[in-house]
Amino acid sequence: MTRDYYGILGVSRDASDDEIKRAYRKLARQYHPDVNPDPKAHDRFKEINAAYEVLSDDQKRQIVDLGGDPLAPGGGGAGAGPAGAGPFVGFQDIMDAFFGAAGGGGARGPRPRTRPGADAILRLELDLQETAFGVEAPITVDTAVLCTTCSGAGTAAGTHLATCEACGGRGEIQSVQRTFLGQVVSSRPCTVCQGYGTVIPHPCPTCAGDGRVRTRRSLTVKIPAGVEDGMRIRLAQQGEVGPGGGTAGDLYVEIHERPHDVYSRKGDDLHCRVTVPMTAAALGTRLTIKTLDSEEPVDVKPGTQPGSTVRLRARGVPHLRGTGRGDLFVHLDVRTPTKIDAEQERILREFAKTRGEEVAELTKQGGFFSRMRDAFNGHA
Q1: Among the listed residues 284, 267, 369, 378, the one whose alpha carbon sits nearest the alpha carbon of residue 320
Q2: Average pLDDT of 6-20?
Q3: Looking at the 3D structure of the chain, how many domains does it have?
């Protein structure tokens, strides 16, 4: 069955080259083995690369649009037979003859050895203080970098690339085969040079001809004030160096904010809870709380009820874009004492009496519960 390459990348069949490239880069960052350790992600990453390889090539995409599969054995198209099945060739051979086979106009030519590198992603954990006000954070990245021994050429010192004798530098091997349309001249990537048109007789001993090596580097990333959990910061050309010393991709630093002991964050606003005694809530008081960068007074008005909130303007997190800061919301929890001595009880009862409030005698015979029982029994 023909694979749905458009569905793998999540694009429509009339997607532009830029849309296909953007979809590929997004999925590659999500399923790259260096980022996603899930074994299933590795297979998914292979599918994504295969789909991009097909849809980014005009000839292969043409085959897909006509119902074929350019990555299937024998071309994978309609009517394609198994390899070596008689003198007839597969759908791929026919398409090559009409869309870019050598001698038919518009030959593909050899593949470039120098290709752009992939993007990389790194998770960085920061405290609320650091995300709020910014920080210059040291990071360590493990990526492919330019081989300094050969400067990306892939050849040993004093040696050079050599033209492939099998394909004569074209990167393709031509063959003439008979099909139901007659004789067809088809082309295939050269298996000797892998389509590059050149070979490396003496590879660089450091990078084995790849032009790049993996190494661990230390960088410093500047975190702007006001970043939020999940945001990414782009470091241009700090990702993977491409094969043959190609331009490096980008490095994305993903921010993960650690939970704070006191404050919770919602956007640029901060929230905290403060417990005040019952008497302070009734009489009013002034508290001093420590914000992220200062100490601020909080006025508790007389008669404050449980769940009341005091708003301190511009004491939250600085705005990432523009000026100003969010607000700090102080949520007040009124605490009622659970244990009081005899004198405190007497004072509270006197206070209730002055307010005309009846207080139950919970510990004495004939008290509150006794009166409730009598009321239900008709002896009030």
Answers
A1: 267
A2: 91
A3: 3
Residues 139 and 112 in one domain: yes
Residue identified by tokens 């593909």 is 108
- State the CATH number of the domain containing residue 308: 2.60.260.20
Note whether 248 and 372 are same-domain residues: no
66 lies in some domain: no
- The reply to whether 98 falls in a domain is no
CA distance 95 to 63: 7
Which spans in the chain are helix H?
5-9, 17-31, 39-55, 58-65, 91-98, 128-133, 278-283, 342-354, 368-376
Asked whether residue 232 falls in the same domain as residue 271, the answer is no
Q: Is residue 132 part of a domain?
A: yes
Run of H or E residues at 142: strand 135-146
With a threshold of 0.90, does the pTM exceed it?
no
Quick one: which of 246, 245, 265 has its CA closest to 255? Answer: 265
Tokens of 162: 């050599």
Residues 121 and 204 in one domain: yes
Here the tokens at position 85 are 């099945």
Taking the alpha carbons at both ends of the chain, their separation in whole angstroms is 88
Distances (CA, A) of 96 to 6, 261, 379: 22, 65, 106
Q: How confident is the model at residue 90 (pLDDT cuts 50, 70, 90)?
A: very low
pLDDT digits (tens, 9 = 90+) for 180-211: 555 666 778 898 999 999 999 999 999 999 99
32 occurs within a structural domain: no
Same domain for 146 and 283, yes or no, is no
Min mean pLDDT across 91-100, 213-222, 230-239, 350-359 is at 91-100
Q: Say yes or no: 331 and 208 in one domain.
A: no
- Containing structural domain, residue 319: 264-335
Q: How many residues does the chain have?
A: 380
SS3 assignment for 174-240: EEEEEECCEEEEEEEECCCCCCCCEECCCECCCCCCCCEEEEEEEEEEEECCCCCCCCEEEECCCCC
Q: How big is the chain by its Cα radius of gyration, in Å?
A: 37
**Whether residue 371 has pLDDT greater than 80:** no
- Give the residue from 232, 229, 252 showing the smallest Cα distance to 121: 252
- The tokens for 32 are 């790259």
